[in-house]
Amino acid sequence: MLSYFLRRLILVLPVAFGVSIICFLLVQIAPGDPLTAIMPVDATAEEQAAMRAAYGLDKPLPVQYAIWIGNLVQGDMGRSIATGRPVAGEVFGAVQNSLVLAISASLIAFPIGVFLGFLAGYFRDTLLDRAVTAISITGVSVPNYWLGIVLVIIFSVQLGWLPSMGAGPGGSQEWEWNWLHIRHLVLPAITLAVVPIGIVARTVRALSGDILTMDFVQALYAKGMSRFDVLCHVARNAAATALSVMGLQLGYLLGGSILIETVFNWPGSGFLLSNAIFQRDLPLLQGTILVLALFFVAMNLIVDVAQAAIDPRIKRN
Amino acid sequence: MKAPLVEIQDLVVRFKGDRTVHAINGLDLTLQQGETLALLGESGSGKSVTLKTLLALLPPKRSEVEGGIAVNGTDVRKLKGKALQKYRGGEVSMVFQDPGLALDPVYTVGAQISEAVMRHKGVSRDEAMSTALDMLRRVRIPSPERRLKNYPHELSGGMRQRVMIALALACRPRLLLADEPTTALDATVQIQILLLLRELQREFGMGVIFVTHDIGVAVEVSERIAVMYAGQIVEEGTTSEIINNPRHPYTQGLLAANLHDVARGERLNAIPGAPPPLEERPTACSFAPRCPIAGPECRASLPDFVTLAPRRRVACFRALEAAAAE
Q: Under CATH, what is the fold of the domain B6-325?
């Protein structure tokens, strides 16, 4: 098992390398000049060239990449063009906030999704199954930024129970697990949980429904197992695949919540990313995308290793 | 004579759905303690359904069961909850057709056997594991200590079926139901599994109902054969009676259709036609449309059993006439 983990870890290196190149190039392909955002409109060509040289943007791309990656491995992600602050600090602060949001959303979504999916799979083709399918399709299809706004109207504006924006009294820097902060988390976490509830429920429904029709389920009943025992067997059979779907969902939640974070002014990575895009802040954009992409790679690694640990059919060597 | 191990009376099984399927239509069957009976018939004749009814394994929502099923004097249809769990696997157990599908892929072989032992014998995990180890030895699996920790996919097909047999016999059932246990295996492995089953049957003294569509297999393992067609038994007798002196035209057709004594290039004697659709309960002899000797009475009403000798019966209007004419 340990050697499997190490082998998988080594395989991550080339992936991470590829990811860094793509992050670097994607930002270059995007239209717009980062300097226009910070230079006065009447700046002369010489002034622009001087600024360009100061940020190293006049060098050929491979050289720029080499400098970027060289600094990166030393923990230096450059400075934000817009604010002048180190990118690393900005990104990690934001990622931390996004992590809080993503994990809370997962804690809401995964148990509900698994429970609904299991119910639907067990009572397949019944009214209950159709109800769960309707819930999950609605969850996946409803635009969640719209849902976020509706929730804000109901719970913040009309009822006044929960705040509509921000991450609490400490702003973006001082997250704490107390009610003062958590009340800010409730609405965005619920909004963010809706899509993964649908996806997890549909996956678990398909998995458990299929497994229940397999011969070994009948064989388990035939040797005298109770319904509960059989369901434990089914759960163990479904666990590997369900876990991988949930792992990837967590990865998406981390990086894919730009809209939600914007609606709720949540100072997370999506919020940071949208700011960086609008300001053409290349170093910040590159750094944020890279960190999110690497999170995704790490999530994949964890999912793979967990799957191999649960399901003996996955080859370990 | 002691009370029979299995007594099935006028069993009727229907599957509901878009169309109703009359899978079993008035089946009677008796099995004595320690006896081995082969249920012989083609696909769809209701062999497997009969076995599943004996374990109350048919989905209750989609199937209707009528008639009496008693095993060791217990009315199987009345069993529920804990009593049913105790009966399944303790009193009666089953070996399935494809051991690759009937074993849980993510549990070790040892865990799957010991799980059943723990449930029925109420022993600790360690004791159950040692029972499992003993069972793997009895089904002659090489290096059984190591195999206990293997997953089903790490074993060959024949080995998996040995595991399945070990699992089925671990709680010493009085009745073993074998649902085509060699169909999914290589020809060379088939005979090993058959010999093993025969040996274990003698050792444990249990009754066996062995479902097969292969006459060769039926002859190899069983003392008695019951031939099934369209959800009914059409002929029953000892193995030698059925093989040497078949009375029902369907049994005769089956025996004529095998590959022995056929010269190369010669046409095989297949039974013409196909089995009837079972959307309605048959009111006449189901085999009549394919039968070479069928008369008007065969198409008009259901034939009753003709008892030729004790425990030797055939459901055919013309069997006696045909026999007399020979």
A: Rossmann fold (3.40.50)
